[in-house]
Amino acid sequence: MTEESVAGDASDGAAARDAEAAFDVEALVESLLAGEHRALARAITYIEDRTPGYRQLVGALHEHTGNASVVGITGSPGTGKSTLVDKLALEYRDRGETVGVIAVDPASPFTGGAVLGDRIRMGSTVGDMDVFVRSMSARGALGGLAAATADAVRALDAFGKDRIIIETVGAGQNEIDVVRTADTVAVLVQPGAGDDVQMLKAGILEIADCFVVNKADLDGANRTVQELTEMLQLERDVDPIVRTGHHGPDGGEAPTSESDESAVEPDGDTGDGEWRTPVVETVATHGEGVDAVIEAFDDHRSYLANTGALEDRARTRYAEEIRTLLREDLGTLLEAEIDERGGIESLAAEVHRRETNPYAVADELLGPIRDCVAEDRD
Known about the structure:
Layout: H1 13-17, H2 25-33, H3 37-49, H4 54-62, E1 69-75, H5 81-94, E2 99-105, H6 118-121, E3 131-137, H7 149-159, E4 163-167, E5 184-189, H8 194-200, E6 210-213, H9 221-236, E7 242-243, H10 258-261, E8 279-281, H11 290-307, H12 309-340, H13 344-352, H14 358-377
Parallel strand pairs: 1-4, 1-5, 2-3, 2-4, 5-6, 6-8, 7-8
C-alpha cells in the first residue's frame, strides 16, 4: 500500500485518519517479531513520525510486550548521562543481554529533529547488532520525553530486547514524565551541584529510585553525596543507602574489608515493603561504579516484583496512556469542529463582544459528544 492510497483528513478524527495505513502493518510486525533490525528501525520511524497506521502497528505489538526491564536515566545537562548509558549498554552486553536505547534529545528549532546525536557519544558498542540506539527529538514535549517514546519502548520490548534504557533531555524537574514509561528511574547529579540538589527538592526527588553521583573523582563529590543523603533522610525519615561505586563515603577507595562492607547495606529493599533510595558514585568515563548502578537497578526491579508494585506501576502507566490518548483524540475532534464554526478567533471574538462566554462555548462544542456518549451508554 502506498502513501497515495491513504484516505481521510484531520477533520475525520484520529480514528478515521489512521484507518488506512501508509505501510503494510502486518508484514512489518511479522518482520519485527522475527528479529529483523531494519524492521525495528522502520517501526520506530513510523511511530515517531505518527505515520498513518502507527496505531495499528503499536496495537499489534502490545501483546508481545512486558518482558523487558525499562530504566530511565535523567538529570541536568552535563552530568554525563550519555556516557553512563554507553557504559551501561557495554556492561549489559558483557553479561550476554541485549539492549535498546532511546535517547531523547532537544529539538532543532528549524527542522524539529534531534540536535544531539547520541550515537556519536555512545561509541563503545558500535557495530554490535544486539545494541540498538535511537536518538529521538523531544519536539517541544514537556517532561523530557518525546510523545512517541512509550510506543518506541513497546517496539523494542516486542523485538525482544532484555534491557531498555531511556535517556531524557535533562530539562530539570519537568523530567517527571519519565516515570510513566520506566520501571526504574535514576537521577544523575554531578559533584558541586549544590543548586541542582536544592532543585531536586522541588520535584525530581519523588521520581528517583536511585541517585547516581557521576564524575565522583572530582572535588566536591563527598559533599554532594552528603547533601543527597541528608535530603533523603529528611524526606523519607529513614537512612538512605550510599553505594560506593568509586570512592568510599570518606573520600577514600571503596570499602574492601569485611567490617567496612558491613556499614553499607546490600540493597534498597528494607524488607518491610519500603524502598530506600540508594546513592551510587560513578566515574562513567572509566566505567567505574557501573556494576553498582546495575546492581541497584536489579535490586529495585526485584523489589517491585516482590511487592506487586511492578504490576501496579504498569496499570497506572496504561491508565495514564489511555487518558492521554483520549485527550489527544478529543482535542482533534474539537479542533475540527471549531474550524467548521469559523475558527477559534471567531469564537473568541464572540466572547469578547459579550455575546457568549467561554463556558457556554465549551458546553456547546461538547454537547453533541456528551449526548452521543450518553446515548451509547443507554
